Amino acid sequence: MKFNPEVYRIPDERMKPFIDPEEIWGYINNSIPTKERVREIIAKALDKQRLNLEETATLVNTTDPELVNEILQGARTLKERVYGNRIVLFAPLYIGNKCTNNCKYCGFRASNKDAVRKTLGDEEIVKEVEALEDNGQKRLILVYGEHQNYSPEFIAHTVKLVYGIKRGNGEIRRVNINAAPLDIDGFRTVKESGIGTYQVFQETYHPEAYANYHPSGKKRDYEWRLTSLDRAQEAGLDDVGIGALFGLYDWRFDVLSLVRHTNHLEACYNVGPHTISFPRIKSASGLDLTDQYFVSDEDFVKLVAILRLAVPYTGMILTAREPIAIRREVIQFGVSQIDGGTKLELGSYSDTKNDSQNLNREQFQINDNRSLSEIVDELIENDYLPSFCTACYRLGRTGEHFMEFSVPGFIKRFCSPNAMLTLAEYLVDYGTPIQKEKGFKLIEKNIQQLNGHQNADEVRSRINKIIAGERDLYF
Ligand code: SAM
Ligand code: SF4
To answer: Ligand 2 pocket, 106 CB below 6 A?
Structure first.
């Protein structure tokens, strides 16, 4: 059947646009952050209850340094309670930067004639993925511009190709996608290729600001983008990621809108987004923006902590757009996934001679150039458990059936042991001697903290099997 937007666009109540700017501004303008109220809200969040818009608005309006500090500490505690000390690692792989849109903040936009356009061919994808596997990556997010060449069939083809590429003990076990919104059939095609999460960022949820930054191309259609993940759900793709590009509009409005979007998905489909991303604008080739809404480091840390408190059960992704110091800080307050060893230039993972950044070949500038190994080192040093786990997704534990948070003790029973098993694989296959020494010590320390949720001897026995050469063990 041929796609007909008029049929698919608003098939029922669920796909109606769910952002009302007046309502959101109403909350921001009328929520007063008294000490008692802010503390009550933090306590509610620590009880693992989702915050509503009024409560989120009260937190975004908080400026008293003492209370802001309580918000940060609350987020840190909640994160430890909900996620433990795991940090999931991944890398982005840009497949193609052709684009028919004109987003004013993006180096790939159609009118940027300086951008060097490229779409990786199959052989180039193989080389890139082999290079990523040689570094120890197990989870990738494939990224595409919006262009007729990047059809659902093309995306599905690249996903299947990536899953089939194995070198040594290397393999990619989870492929996520960041690409343009699709229609329902398109989402179905991509889902069938076996993807994990499909991410679409709304950039800004404010319709007028959105219109200003998207002067032409398909992306100009705010509602088509806003309802994209509803269409994904209709297609049976229940593992979705939302995001806002901070710096386009008042950050408080977009924080509330992310919470609203989360509520909408939960209310309509019984499953919230798997992840929230909160990129900040970074320098790009030929940016066409003012800095009116750029978010300061201080506000950025605060907004991450508020999101953590507002949606305790949603994964939060922080990328190498941010500099090392900010990554170190923000990781404490709520982030559960980071990228490592990131390169944005198309074809650059396998091109070892070219290590410099060139803005005409990249979507934007990254500010953390460290290798995956350096990131793993730092996490271990700071008592975080690096994880390459992909078990839930492969066992079908996703979406409505996603038990990570609904089953008591699930994290200690499954997630933490799986983090340890995948870290052990990484250490054996790719670790430096010193990394191995420190990493296995950290694993043993974490085994001792399982408190009976998982059989410690069984975890040790599987670690020994990995050392002996077995791979891909999980609970
Ligand atoms: N082309 C697709 C789209 O726009 O949805 C998907 C990929 S786009 C390459 C991924 C994300 O990068 C965008 O959704 C946007 O949030 C972010 N981005 C674009 N320009 C950026 C910049 N200058 N700094 C930081 N992030 C940027
Ligand atoms: Fe194209 Fe995406 Fe960049 Fe917009 S953000 S110009 S759609 S690649």
So the answer is: yes
Residues in the chain: 475
Using one digit for the tens of pLDDT, what is the confidence trace for 59-103? 999 999 999 999 999 999 999 888 889 999 999 999 999 999 999
Provide the residue ranges of all domains of the chain, joining segments of one domain with +: 81-346+360-370, 399-467
Query: How far is CA 272 from each of CA 185, 188, 238, 256, rounded to the nearest angstrom?
Result: 22, 19, 9, 15
User: Which class is 81-346+360-370 in CATH?
Assistant: alpha beta
Best residue among 143, 178, 276, 288 to mutate for probing ligand 1, ranked by most atoms within 8 Å of CB: 178
Q: Crossing angle, helix 297-310 and helix 65-83, to 10 degrees? A: 50
Closest protein CA for atom 2 of ligand 2: 145
CA 411 to ligand 2 centroid distance, Å: 36
Give the type of residue at 49. Q
Of the listed ligands, the closest to the CA of 112 is: 2
Q: Which segments of 118-201 are extended strands (E)?
A: 139-144, 166-167, 170-171, 174-178, 198-199
The atom number, within ligand 1, closest to the CA of 99 reads: 1
- The closest of 303, 329, 328, 319 to 366, measured between CA atoms, is 319
Q: Which ligand is nearest to the CA of 289?
A: 1
Taking CB atoms and a 6 Å cutoff, what residues make up the pocket around ligand 1? 105-106, 143, 145-146, 178-180, 200-201, 203, 245, 279, 281-282, 284, 321, 363-364
Q: CA 5 to CA 8: how far, in whole Å?
A: 5
pLDDT in tens, 149-203: 999 999 999 999 999 999 999 999 999 999 999 999 999 999 999 999 999 999 9
User: How, if at all, do strands 337-339 and 315-318 pair?
Assistant: parallel
